[in-house]
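Query structure, 347 tokens:
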């Protein structure tokens, strides 16, 4: 069989199948490195692809290199604005590398994570990026031997597991310290029941800042919340029923802060006139809240870019400079906090 010149018109998948004497699905299976193709047939199809070229030259090159040219990103939800910059950061890096992105969501269900991992590790991906993974999913990935990088963690990361996260403890500490510097002493926190590692670190930073200022840790000021707007609303209504309500509220994230605003508005209370409020994440709408919300910026796009860069190195069997990368948060001061006067504090 004579080799076809590369400048000639390349055949289609159907023509490759005809030349190799196999069906179109068989060629597709070979291109996707499926195991259910007999070895002699596989070699014959690969030889035709090599000699004749193929219109999907990316797939042919990937086949010869033992790669699919695909990377999977598994998100908890697709309709959550927090994850969109992470997605964009991943997409930018993969696009620059000529790798295609496959996206799915799990709705925070560990069994869906494990099921999807089983699906994609059957030679249909080069690597996996997993956001807020469950322990079951991490264990499954480790057993699979497939390249992967975690973005955020539900629990403390195990040594050697590639991951990217943010300085949530420091963000919580700085936010609370800012309120203390404005004279606030009764500072509430909303979000203590959120289970993600970042959430746990945020309230730990809050507690550390109070301790550093020799302020008491009042259990009544530490409210349940799982980072929803409804949690912020419910907690604020409860806080304002206390005999001695707080003068400031540090919400665990911006969505809870939006709930704080709604509760205060219904009670004809103002931010920051009656209550100072700080959020966390720096979601886009925080700039147009009334007043604009003071918050802690989470570098979400950089999370995605860093994780994708790490994964590409692992796919290419290159060593990582470090397996755990922690990106810095940034305090963003806007107009939702004010100094507490002695008169206000005495009320």
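Result returned for the query:
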């Amino acid at each position: 069989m004579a080799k076809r010149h590369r400048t000639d018109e390349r055949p289609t998948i159907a023509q490759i199948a005809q030349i190799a004497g196999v069906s179109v699905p068989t060629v597709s299976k070979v291109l996707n490195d499926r195991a259910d193709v007999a070895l002699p047939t596989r070699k014959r199809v690969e030889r035709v692809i090599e000699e004749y070229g193929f219109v999907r030259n990316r797939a042919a090159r990937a086949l010869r290199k033992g790669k699919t040219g695909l990377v999977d990103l598994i998100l908890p939800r697709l309709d959550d604005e927090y994850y969109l910059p992470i997605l964009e950061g991943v997409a930018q890096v993969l696009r620059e590398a000529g790798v295609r992105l496959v996206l799915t969501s799990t709705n925070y269900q560990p069994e869906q994570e494990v099921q999807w991992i089983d699906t994609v590790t059957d030679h249909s991906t080069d690597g996996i990026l997993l956001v807020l993974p469950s322990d079951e999913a991490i264990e499954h990935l480790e057993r699979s031997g497939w390249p992967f990088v975690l973005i955020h963690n539900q629990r403390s990361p195990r040594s050697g597991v590639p991951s990217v996260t943010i300085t949530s403890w420091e963000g919580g500490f700085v936010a609370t310290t800012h309120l203390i510097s404005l004279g606030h002493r009764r500072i509430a926190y909303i979000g203590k029941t959120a289970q993600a590692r970042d959430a746990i670190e945020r309230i730990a930073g809050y507690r550390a800042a109070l301790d550093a200022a020799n302020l008491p840790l009042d259990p009544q000021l530490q409210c349940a919340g799982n980072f929803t707007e409804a949690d912020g609303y419910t907690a604020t209504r409860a806080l304002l029923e206390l005999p001695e309500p707080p003068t400031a509220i540090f919400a665990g994230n911006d969505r809870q802060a939006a709930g704080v605003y709604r509760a205060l508005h219904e009670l004809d209370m103002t931010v920051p006139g009656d209550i100072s409020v700080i959020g966390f994440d720096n979601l886009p709408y925080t700039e147009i809240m009334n007043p604009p919300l003071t918050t802690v910026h989470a570098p979400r796009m950089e999370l995605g870019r860093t994780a994708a860069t790490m994964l590409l190195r692992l796919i290419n069997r290159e060593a990582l400079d470090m397996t755990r990368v922690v990106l810095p948060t940034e305090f963003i001061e806007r107009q939702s906090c004010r100094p507490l006067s002695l008169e206000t504090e005495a009320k």
